[in-house]
What we know:
Order of helices and strands: HHHHHEEEHEHH
Distance between the termini: 38 Å
Strand order of the largest sheet: 1-2
Helix content: 40-55%
Structural class: mainly alpha
Largest sheet: 2 strands, antiparallel
Number of domains: 2
Number of strands: 4
Radius of gyration: 17 Å
Strand content: 5-15%
Amino acid sequence: MFLRLWGNPIVGRLISLMKIPDAETLRNRAFAGLVAHRERVPVEFLEVALAGGALPGTALTTRTMLHAVTSLRGLRRGLWMGEDIVHLQVPTLFVWGDQDGQARPSIGAGFSRRMPEAKLTIVDDAGHMPQLDQPKAVATIVRSFLGKA
Length: 149
C-alpha cells in the first residue's frame, strides 16, 4: 500500500518530503516487508540506496514511475504479465523466497509448471528479495542455471 500511495500525485509529494537520515532507518522502514531478515541487508547496499535517493530529480522520477505502474487498487492491470509469461520459449529461472510476503511461491510454481523451459527454485529463509537475504545461495542457483543455458 505504501508504494501505491507514493505513486499517487498528491500523497506522493508528501511522502517524497520525508527524508530517511541514515542506513539503519532505511533498513527498518523500507525492507521490513521485502526481506525475511532486515539485518542481512548489507550496509553498503543501503548507503548506495541513500546516495541514489539524494540525487536531484530522484523523488519526481520515483513518483512518476510508481504512478505509471500502480494505482490505489494495486498493480495496473495492463502491466500484469499474467498469462503472457507462460508463452516464453526461452530458459527461465524463477528464484523465490519461501517467506515472500509480496507474492507467494505458489505463484512462481504455477508459472513454471506451465512453461516449457522454466525452473523454480525456492530459497529457504528468504523474503521477496532473496538475493539480499541469501546472496550466496542465490548466486549459486543463478550460476548453475546459467551454466546449463
